[in-house]
Automatic annotation (TrEMBL):
NCBIfam families: dapA (TIGR00674)
Subunit details: Homotetramer; dimer of dimers.
Active site: 146 (proton donor/acceptor), 174 (schiff-base intermediate with substrate)
Protein name per the record: 4-hydroxy-tetrahydrodipicolinate synthase
Cellular component GO terms, alphabetical: cytosol
PROSITE patterns, per database record: DHDPS_1
Function of the protein: Catalyzes the condensation of (S)-aspartate-beta-semialdehyde [(S)-ASA] and pyruvate to 4-hydroxy-tetrahydrodipicolinate (HTPA).
Residue ranges the record marks as coiled coil: none
UniProt catalytic activity: L-aspartate 4-semialdehyde + pyruvate = (2S,4S)-4-hydroxy-2,3,4,5-tetrahydrodipicolinate + H2O + H(+)
Gene Ontology BP annotations: diaminopimelate biosynthetic process; lysine biosynthetic process via diaminopimelate
Family: Belongs to the DapA family.
Amino acid sequence: MPNHNSTPVAGNERLQQTTLWTALITPFLPDESIDFTTLSQLAKEQESAGNGILLLGSTGEALAMTHNEQQDVIRHICSMSLSVPLMVGVGGFQLQQQMLWLDFLKDYPIDALLVPVPLYAKPGAASQLKWFNSLLDASSWPCMIYNVPSRTGVALDDQVLGLLAEHPNTWAVKEASGSVEAFGSYYTAAPSLQFFCGDDGLLVDFIAAGACGLVSVAANAWPEATARYVQQSLDFDTDPNQSEPDFKTLWQQAGSSLFCAANPIPVKALMKRQGRLNSAELRPPLYMEELQEITPLLDADTAINQWVESI
């Protein structure tokens, strides 16, 4: 069975202890401006559940926002002095812009960065290595390397990850290829790093392969239930005599429902029906008309709530 205890991140106990990160949505008003009142409420829900918060990832529609808006989100959340750790996305493919972003962040009490493979350009191994090293060298925080080929257009090179693992600012990996086999290749290449599952429905399988936690879309809709799911998945992995957990299929179906259209369209639609968003507004190029059927989301919501009541 894989060893989930990697070298701790010195001086940051909150980071060491966090097994669930919520890739927080950005709520918008009908005029597409940021709904800061709701953003505060959502952040407090995550704090109450004990979940780390990832700001300005793809679920947060960061690249559809202006630079000033991104800065406003950081200022707003950091002013709340939350008791849970904060991670901030570093996305895009223009290196100088990312350097300016890191320079801005230096003035704020964040705990980590999420650094994906560059978008659009499809860099090969040599280019990936130079890109990541440039950002890691400039970072003042531990960094989670993010593999999500469905969005970036190219997968993280596993040999590059092995080299990046030697950098003192490389802390973790978010693996969202959707493949347990691919996860295994990355884990083998860099076993000293902490690995986080990037697909809600695959958590049990990824933990069995070496993951120590989850970066979640589902936790937006179900903050406390997802925290229980992560803990039960980790607990299950410590007992090799158990059969497959009964909650595995439930969460696979729930996770699939959240990707019946481009993320974060479904989760925003569900949170609106839950009464937790005043508006399910999105930023172009995403539009709610893409969501053809909400029934799977409502069924998942009912099933998750029933599961929580049963445990």
